[in-house]
Amino acid sequence: CIRDSEAYFPSDWNTSPHTFPPAADVPTIEHTAPGEYRENKDVPLSAIVTEAYGLSSVKLYYRMEGESTYNVLPMLLEEGEHSVSIPKDHVKKGTLEYYIVATNAREFNGHKGSAEEPLTLEVKAKKTDDTPAFGVIIALTALGAMMVIATSRRR
Question: Are 42 and 34 in contact (CB under 8 A)?
Fold first, then answer.
């Protein structure tokens, strides 16, 4: 039985015999990993965060596998979901590692993934038809074919 005088605070976690706050005090995060992504494209991520005490922040931590530090982006509330896009210049071929942390007004954190056990997303090489040069080649080929046809009709 826990009395009000035995409330858990983040600063007490290491000195208290109890190492975690009660589950009802921690924000819960619902998140579904996105589908396939290609390198050099923004990766939009979203989560639904449920919290009884009010949220102070929701943050996305991300890095490419093998990098030593995580980048951090705030997730903004839009239409009932917290969302953010990982910028395309940070999205390379390989494994993208990420996790989400929601902090409530009482300074308790809820996690989806963690630095030690991140969520992952496989990023594939961009398709050859994703490059602007590919479109130019197609357009020039079509123009050349039209010129050949027009020239042959004049004869």
Answer: no
